[in-house]
Amino acid sequence: MADAEEITTQDSTLKEWTRALAEPIGSPGGGAGAGVMLAIAASLTSMVAGYTEPTADRSEDGRGYQRATQQAELEAVIAGAQKLRRRALELADEDAEASAAFGRAFAMERGPERKKAIHEASLGAARSSVILGEHATGAIADLAWLAEYGNPALIADVVVAFGALRAALTGARTNASFDLAALKSSGSSLDQVRQQHPELWASVEALDDAIVRIDAATQSVDDRAAPTDAQD
Fold first, then answer.
1. Nearest Cα to 149, choosing from 72, 46, 225, 74?
2. Is the pLDDT of residue 1 over 60?
């Protein structure tokens, strides 16, 4: 196995990466795991879109979609998902780096330098998580489009993608919130953190809203994805 510092989501095998994740080293950790879940969601989105053929109308309310329009939308979904898959793996590695800096800061001897290091590392980790969450939020619309217009034989894959996307969002939201709260260790109160970093604070709330959207989208197709669980 490669050294922990050499393990990356972009260059390591899945076996190597998960082995490193299983070690008590914190890098990679949960945030990097959230990035991998985002990559899985993006990959499944691309797969389902690739299996989908455009039709004149696949909506229940009778809205007509021209084949050319649907084809263009499918191509846009695939291109966006492929780009997100690559970016998600980069974000996973960036989060691993932020996590390592976070750990180093808390391992320092108590004093002004430690407080400064914790402050900087906490903000860096929070920003990393928020960026990942924003990318995950941006992926909801394409996946919801596939839930309505995608190949119906792959609706279960859409739900799995929703699950992976929810895991990515939950991880991003929780990590960002935890990292902001960690600023208390550098001498700030939560009220001060909210006042000093309003955008990061608001981003955590936005990620909560995104999770609600995913839950609603998943529930809306549950009768098709898991018909044996449907109520009579």
1. 74
2. no
Please tell me whether the overall predicted TM-score, pTM, comes out greater than 0.85 for this model: yes
**Looking at domain 27-225, which of 1.20.120.680, 3.50.50.60, 3.30.70.1230, 3.40.50.300 is its CATH number?**
1.20.120.680
Q: Which residues contact 96 (CB under 8 A, 6 or more apart)?
A: 8, 9, 27, 28, 29, 31, 32
Which residue is listed with tokens 């919130």?
177
**Domain positions in the chain:** 27-225
Q: Residue 228 is which amino acid?
A: T
On the CB side of 160, how many CA atoms lie within 13 Å of its CA?
13
pLDDT at residue 170, rounded to an integer? 97
pLDDT at 56: 59
Are the beta carbons of 130 and 172 closer than 8 angstroms?
yes
